[in-house]
Amino acid sequence: MSYTESSALGTPPSRRARSLAIRGTFIAVICTSAFLLFLIQPMFSKMAVPLVGGSPGVWTTAMLFFQSILLGGYAYAHWLASSFPVSKQRQIHLVVTALAIMTLPLALPMGWSLPQDGTVTLWLLALFTVSIGAPFFALSANSPLLQEWYAASGEPDGADPYFLYAASNIGSFGALVAYPLLIEPSIGLSDQGMFWSAGYVVLMLGILVAGFMAHDAPAPTLKKTADADAAPLSRKQVAFWMLLSFVPSSVMLSVTAKIATDIGSFPLIWVTTLGLYLLTYVFAFSARFRAVSGGLPRLYGLLAVGMFLFVCFDRNETQRSVEIIVLLGFLFATALCFHTKLAENRPDKRHLTAFFLAMSAGGALGGLFNSILAPMVFNNVHEFTIAVALAFAATPCLRLAWRRDLGIAAAIGAGFIALVALVWSGGTDAILPRANGLMLVSTIIAATTAIILLRMMGNPLRQVAIAGVALAAVSTATSDPSLLMRERSFFGVYEVHEIEDGKIRYLKHGTTIHGLVQMGDGIPRAAAYYAQSGPFGQFFDLLGEGDSVGIVGLGMGGLSCHRAGEVDKVFYEIDPLVDRIARDPHYFGMMDACGITTPTILGDARIEMEKAPDNAHDHIILDAFSSDAIPVHLLTREAFETYDRVLPESGGLFVHISNRHFDLVGPVARVAESLGFSVHVQHYIPDEEAERMERATPVSALIATKDPALAARLAADDRWAEAQGWDKPLWTDDYANTLSALR
After folding, report:
1. I need a surface site. Which of 65, 333, 699, 716 has the fewest CB within 10 A?
2. What sign has the CA pseudo-torsion 360, 361, 362, 365?
3. Which SS3 state, helix, strand or coil, does residue 589 take?
4. Half-sphere exposure of 30 (CA within 13 A, CB side)
5. Under a CB-based contact definition with an 8 Å cutoff, are residues 524 and 498 in contact?
6. pLDDT tens string 330-354
7. At 226, is the pLDDT very low, low, confident or very high (cuts 50, 70, 90)?
8. Under DSSP, is residue 253 helix (H, G, I), strand (E, B) or coil?
9. Residues with Cβ < 8 Å from 122, sequence gap 6 or more?
């Protein structure tokens, strides 16, 4: 019987008022706890991003940390609930919560620098543990523990306290909306840490009040279900809960990584996917939503159609906005299906903490798979494809005739994989070349998809799961015939491709091509961004013989041959894998082909330059963009102060700012001008001859200098224009609103 029903039966007004007070207090405390819990995630992740060069892997690793500590908090709550009465639980938990205050206020610890031995993920997990592990652990236990206390409070609706979990997720969702839209644009990181710490102290007082309410509440007015009547848990049931949590967790992390690689690793991207994921919990644990969720299979089937096309044609250049909408829609529908089934299978309150423990374990396993196992096993982002396949195959939105349908799925998948293997191995070369064979396979896949979609029109969508598994298997097995090499590190997936019968090679990171190399009998020639006629070549033409240049971002080594022997160069590169690729003569060979040994300083460029003496370089080039993600920490006022110290008064700072999603002229020019630099900008469009001879591509760049002579030369060159003023807030380490630069 609900609280409303008990009131209608004549509960005294004083008792109703007390019940409202208890219910309101628990909702307020659990919402506040969830708000702080999910506010700390994007907040501290943003603090940590500069230490690892803005890599999208920061958020995936951060989510593994959060999910793992959440699992520990739920295990701790389960231990308390199953071992002690509420009064003792309250005492222990308040001590744990109070001890965590010793680690506040939130801030990065001193003395932590990026390792160069490939252990970035473990290092980042240790950083999070030392910095925020204690308060996050204490907060993570609040949701199941407060529900347990409310169930013991004697309130009429305490027999089914799961509505508090929906309230908890409302608080979580509120934090994820508030951070990028309200908090990040208006409050600096240091103040954010102070306000968060104050909120933590206030929350501890709320937990104390809620604990006393639970302990001191009068006996229940209605008869409670005896614990002995609750059915014991089975391993099968626990495994089912974990599966229903694992799949949407993996899908959420995969979608986040895919979008962050193309746009940027910053809070708005993180909280969009995580917010949608958490919003599904609010709906799923709402009794009203579950009562009207009959149309969910149709929604899932509609979005599955979009995912079919995405899985099939992921290698093609399509409209990014459409892809993002499809990805977010599929994430939301998948999580809603799985979490609704999870809510429908929630146990009696006796097993409340065990239920949340199993649910948290499934989510943590999803994080472990995406953050640790997949990068170790795969050289591409196959965890995305696998997550999609699992979502299709295991979705509770579709009723499958498992033996028959999975058999068909296995047959289709095996057939496609065998066909791809045959073509790739050269088994069909006598009939048609490999490239044409792979194109034929892609056509067959698309045709199969079309047939399945047509059958879906009069079918209960069983084929969605079948086609999903088959297409996911094909996507994993297929490969681009131009691919020479693919390797993966913490910072992303790198591919070397060869086209036009070996005349052109290029390096691809994520979805972005980082320059071309024209291969020939002589010295390889840099093309695309690095063409001699473009801004890079123009900048090198401005330099004097014997000048030294610090180049931030190695890529394929495209700048190593510009004025080789006349200008000394030192590269700064955060990823050792990139240095290995650039120096391998089997791929590009530009680093050695020019006859000059060019050193590489491994590590984050800003940190390494802070170690350099004054006037260490005559000029600096910033070309450190990861796919289309922007390394904000290299573009803040504090970063430019370091460049200013390293450069002499006659030096020039060249910044490559080409980007599909952000217009960086304004924020970068504003920072440079605040330190006394004059700034000139060029949006280079190659002419027909440059396109034909150098394969030149459009480039946006700016040059900042304090040298009047260099500034005068730029002003006299009609290819360079003086930067216009920018009236938005200055980017600093403490405050950088990336949304202000979004196109």
Report:
1. 716
2. positive
3. coil
4. 27
5. no
6. 888 888 888 888 888 888 777 888 8
7. very low
8. helix
9. none
Encode 540-553 in three state secondary structure: HHHCCCCCEEEEEC
Q: Is the pLDDT of residue 545 over 70?
A: yes
pLDDT at 276: 87
Distance CA 200, CA 213 (A): 20
Contact at 8 Å (CB) between 189 and 733?
yes
Return phi, psi of residue 84, to 5°: -135, 155
8 A C-beta contact, residue 331 and residue 276? yes
pLDDT of residue 543: 92
**What is the pTM (predicted TM-score) of this model?**
0.72
What is the spatial distance between Cα 142 and Cα 672, in angstroms, rounded to a whole number?
46
Architecture of domain 10-219+234-394: Up-down Bundle (1.20)
Q: How far apart are CA 479 and CA 736, in angstroms?
A: 39
Per-residue model confidence as pLDDT tens digits over 148-180? 888 777 777 667 777 787 788 888 888 888 888
Other C-beta atoms closer than 10 Å to the C-beta of 604 total: 23
Q: How far is CA 411 from the centre of its chain?
A: 34
Joined tokens for residue 16: 């109703």
> Phi first, then psi: what are they for 187, rounded to 5°?
-130, 135
Joined together, the tokens standing for residue 117 give 């031995």
pLDDT in tens, 268-303: 677 788 888 888 888 887 766 655 555 566 666 656
Instruction: Give me the DSSP letters along 681-733.
Output: EEEE---HHHHHHH----EEEEEEE--HHHHHHHHH-TT-EEPPP--SPPP-S
C-alpha closest to that of 300 among 166, 170, 176, 456: 456
Amino acid at 472: A
pLDDT category at 647 given cuts 50, 70, 90 is: very high
Q: Which residues contact 717 (CB under 8 A, 6 or more apart)?
A: 538
Distance, CA of 400 to CA of 48 (rounded, Å): 44
* C-alpha–C-alpha distance, residues 543 and 703, integer Å: 13
* Amino acid in the structure at residue 111: G
Local structure of 110: helix, strand or coil = coil
Q: What is the pLDDT of residue 549?
A: 94
List Cβ neighbours of 364 (8 Å cut-off, separation of 6 or more). 64, 67, 68, 70, 71, 249
Each as own residue / partner, the long-range contacts of residues 377-383 (CB below 8 Å, 24 or more positions apart, any chain) are: 378/488, 379/486, 379/487, 379/488, 379/493, 380/486, 380/488, 380/493, 381/254, 381/257, 381/258, 381/493, 382/476, 383/250, 383/253, 383/254
Task: Give 525 or 452, the one with higher predicted confidence.
Answer: 525
Q: In the CATH scheme, what is the code of domain 499-741?
A: 3.40.50.150
Per DSSP, helices labelled H in 522-633 are 535-542, 576-583, 590-593, 605-611
Average pLDDT, the chain: 78
Collapsing DSSP to helix, strand or coil, 572 comes out as strand
Tokens of 241: 């809960």
Write the DSSP symbol of residue 30.
Answer: H
Most distant pair of Cα atoms in the chain: their distance = 95
Identify whether the C-beta of residue 590 lies closer than 8 Å to the C-beta of residue 622: no
Residue in 224, 166, 292, 231 with CA at minimum distance from that of residue 1: 224
Q: What are the sequence ranges of the domains in the chain?
A: 10-219+234-394, 404-481, 499-741
Question: At residue 589, what are phi and psi to the nearest 5 degrees?
Answer: 75, 10
Q: In which element (H, E) is residue 615 found?
A: none
Residue 701 bridge partners (DSSP): 656, 682
Residues 6+ apart with CB under 8 A from 450: none
